[in-house]
Design a protein that fits this description.
single chain; mainly alpha; 78% helix
Length: 118
């Protein structure tokens, strides 16, 4: 019996979108736990977990949550890249990767939004 049948996954792509947002949410809370001054990272983590829940449960509001998160992540990543500007290569690369993956998964979610129901 495969994991797909155990979890009743209808769309592997939507499941991957949900997993992405869960992983990002957990990582954001890990970063927040290391430094409580980074409350904005905690807010991104909360929105990520809410979006993951909405995508996994196929809620209609999940698309709107992902769009809000897309704007937050875009501003956050652009700000990080501006202020780092070559000072920390690994953090800058991570910020770019996070931005690109967020855009990709949001575009996929927008393309498959008819799978989001009630």
């Amino acid at each position: 019996m495969s994991i797909k049948s155990k979890l009743k996954i209808e769309s592997v792509g939507m499941f991957l979108v949900s997993i992405f947002y869960v992983v990002v949410g957990i990582l954001c809370f890990f970063v927040l736990a290391t430094d409580f001054r980074l409350i904005h990272v905690g807010i991104i983590g909360i929105f990520s977990l809410i979006t993951a829940y909405g995508v996994f449960k196929k809620r209609f509001w999940a698309m709107w949550s992902a769009i809000i998160l897309l704007f937050i992540v875009t501003v956050f990543s652009a700000t990080m890249l501006y202020f780092l500007s070559g000072k920390d290569f690994i953090l800058g690369l991570t910020s770019v990767a996070y931005l690109i993956l967020t855009w990709i998964f949001t575009a996929y979610l927008a393309a498959k939004r008819e799978n989001l129901g009630s």
